[in-house]
Amino acid sequence: MNDTNEPTLDDLVGDWSTLPDVAEALDLEIRRVRGLVADRHLVGVKRGERTTFQVPTAFLVTTDEGTRVLETLRGTATVLQDAGFDDAEALRWLFTEQESLGTTPIAAMRAGRRAEVRRLAQALA
């Protein structure tokens, strides 16, 4: 990023979770969480002082039944990967407001607007 006015990924995402934090939230073993990352159910980057792998906390949804991974993330992450986005670029896109959505793609997905987000992501290819 050469444009110093462009927000950093940390500015866009806000809250991050380490894999052990995700494992605790989902009540899973850490190896299962690593599997979720490998299978693109979760997307993250190495960041922070100790460059640990972290995922945006917004990818976790808490309901009365407990905490789970946002179900629509995997398909959208795959569309972005197919469009040539690396994980950092995909995160930047997911957390940057898109005029046609009137919000960020991640907020739209959390609100159940998967189809709109996917159409927009597919147009990037």
Quick structural gist:
Keywords: DNA-binding. By secondary structure, the protein is an alpha+beta fold. The protein has helices spanning 9-13, 19-26, 30-38, 73-82, 87-94, 105-110, 114-122; strands at residues 16-18, 45-47, 52-56, 60-63, 66-69.
What does this structure look like?
The strands form two sheets. The chain has a three-stranded antiparallel β-sheet. A two-stranded antiparallel ribbon has the order 4-5. Helix 2 (19-26) crosses helix 3 (30-38) and helix 4 (73-82) runs parallel beside helix 7 (114-122). The protein is built from seven helices and five strands. It is 44% helix and 15% strand. It is of the alpha+beta class and 125 residues long. It is globular. The mean pLDDT is 93. It has one domain. A hairpin with a 2-residue loop joins strand 4 (60-63) and strand 5 (66-69). It has helices at 9-13, 19-26, 30-38, 73-82, 87-94, 105-110, 114-122; strands spanning 16-18, 45-47, 52-56, 60-63, 66-69. One of its GO terms (molecular function) is DNA binding. Pfam families: Rv2175c_C, Rv2175c_wHTH. It comes from Isoptericola dokdonensis DS-3. This is DNA-binding protein.
